[in-house]
Amino acid sequence: xxxxxxxxxxxxxxxxxxxxxxxxxxxxxxxxxxxxxxxxxxxxxxxxxxxxxxxxxxxxxxxxxxxxxxxxxxxxxxxxxxxxxxxxxxxxxxxxxxxxxxxxxxxxxxxxxxxxxxxxxxxxxx
Length: 126
Known about the structure:
By secondary structure, this protein is α+β, with helices and mostly antiparallel strands. Helix content is 40%, strand content 17%. It contains 4 helices and 5 strands. The longest helix is centred in the last third of the chain and has 21 residues, at 104-124. The chain is globular and about 50 Å long.
């Protein structure tokens, strides 16, 4: 099934990150995803980003980010060759075009990891 952007959505190609979707309907994709050899990866990423729905709330979007595995389709290899895409892993960052960006899903994810490590240290540490 071919998926096209929702009427409010606009796709912009950038040199940083891999992909992001914003509440204003803008989807940002890395410019190299336009290359023919990445068409399958682009399709998967675009489907993932279009699955987000900010009206359904945080937990819905958290589920989209952490249970929809695009990485198995070559995402990590794509990112490894492009250091500017590594910004995708930061929970808070600043870009000139949008200012301060924060990803609530990554903030929660990293908080859970940090809390788990602290609990393990507390329980099993000296």
